[in-house]
Amino acid sequence: MTMTAGCGLIGESEGVPAASSREPAPPFTTGSVADEIAGFARLAGLPPGDTSSAGLPEGDWQKCVAPWTGHAPAADAAGAFEATVLRLRQHDWEIVSSHAEQDVTYRTLAKRGWKLYARYYAVENAGRTVSLTAVEDGCRLPERVRGDYEDPA
User: Fold this and answer.
1) Where are the beta strands (DSSP E) in the chain?
2) Which residues touch 62 (CB under 8 Å, ≥6 apart)?
3) How many Å separate Cα 145 from the centre of its chain?
4) Within 10 Å of residue 91's Cβ, how many Cβ atoms?
């Protein structure tokens, strides 16, 4: 006597879909973008930066911008800037543009509806400054700050 238990046979073309091994990505909010930028800058050797928008115009635009600015030791400021950009790229930020003009190096990256405007200022006798400002796509920046954040024309 032969006994068979189960729900039946399922052919190779039928059956339950395979479970996804990837969980949905958490929302990419202003806070999570700001935390990511600050964390990667710190890991790359930059000192803590300023994330405030003090002195800038008030408005809703600040809800869709994550600023970070820091003064870097001159000895390895350029290396720390490039290491920060590298870390961002290793975490799904894609380079959109890259160029240099006089004393400023520009890198623009994009990820999940955000643009990150990375700047390294190596102004003679004025120190070294790194600026990492993320702006959510569709954010309406005031004219006064647009030129500081977006790529020069």
Assistant:
1) 65-66, 69-72, 94-101, 104-111, 114-122, 128-136
2) 53, 56
3) 19
4) 11
pLDDT tens by residue, 19-37: 556 777 778 899 999 999 9
In degrees, rounded to 5, the angle at the alpha carbon of residue 42 between the alpha carbons of residues 41 and 44 is 65
Give 89-147 pLDDT, tens digit per residue. 999 999 999 999 989 999 999 999 999 999 999 987 777 999 999 999 999 999 888 88
116 strand-pairing partners: 109, 134
In this prediction the pTM is 0.80
Q: Both tokens of residue 80?
A: 């720390």
| The two three-digit tokens of residue 101, written as one number | 């003009």
- Give the number of other Cβ atoms within 10 Å of residue 140's Cβ: 9
CB burial of residue 81 (10 Å; 0-12, 13-18, 19+) = buried
